[in-house]
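Here is one chain, start to finish.
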Amino acid sequence: MADVNGKVMSVHEAIGKFVRDGDELVIGNYTVGSCAELIYEVIRQKRKGLTLYSQSGIFDVEVLVGAGCVDRLVTTYVMRSGGKAGSSAVERALQAGTLEMEDYSNFQYNARLMAGMHGLSYIQVLEGAMETDLFRKRGFMGENKFRVIQCPYTGKNNLTVPAANPDVCVVHVQRADKFGNAQYWGALGSVAAAALASKRIIVSCEEIVEHDVIQSSPHLTLIPAYRVDAVVEVPWGAHPTEVLGYYNIDFFMYALFSQANRTGDGLKAWMDEWIYGCENRAAYIDHYILKFGSNPLNGITAKAFYSAPANYGSAFSSRWDRNGKERSMGLTLPEFEQTLKERGKFYE
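Its structure:
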């Protein structure tokens, strides 16, 4: 598939071009289908000083923190196996003072991204939080974690959170086209808001499909092409998490990671093998098969279960006739665009 827009690129190119030291980076996925390969490449390229946004800190947050990429974390949940008595990269970093964390509820976290997506500077959230430690405990955001303002209509005190507009979102989806139209289905979480609130968006997908596939199911397009900066085709790009329609969670691999993450040395050895030791996702899968065989991956490959097709056809409401010509001018779309170009009115 020819890339006329320059958006289709490798993971290495996408991260190298769009993720910078000191960025605010948001992981777009929520627990399922995490953008593992994009995150691993951030680590391989040794990005530093990141402020990381994550609604569900699972292995993805652990490896980014363990690699020393993250200085600050905004989250609602982090795995932190065993809590303060246990061990995880995040817990070790918190205790060592190398990581600062700001904690929100799922609703408040999503509200911040929703506000950012819609161009607001803040948004109201449920005032009951003022009776909890979420409100009382402040980290690096200080007084800007929450603000209480007076409603101009009722005079009531309203609790608000600031909008979030991260520098870059990394997100994994099922499929996209070469233009960047990204389609995702399943548990949504903050996928759309995380992407659309961000200044730059890197999409990895299980497969790049033709544009007519995207057109045939427009309701699945969560991230439109004009907002996407890079598109990367990465089969098994979310492993060991699941991608609906492609593969299930790999509990075996998850267990290996969790065991290794109990100590700093264990995590380092795991990352040396599975991140630094594999230059890309293809090498990662090859290493997995060499070490464990193909049966574990075959065993989690999803069985097909298709939804019923939807009819998007129209009888006569379209401005375009059955020959593809605009009804009032009698021009096809390419002819119409050419006319605009000739008159200096067409902007790409």
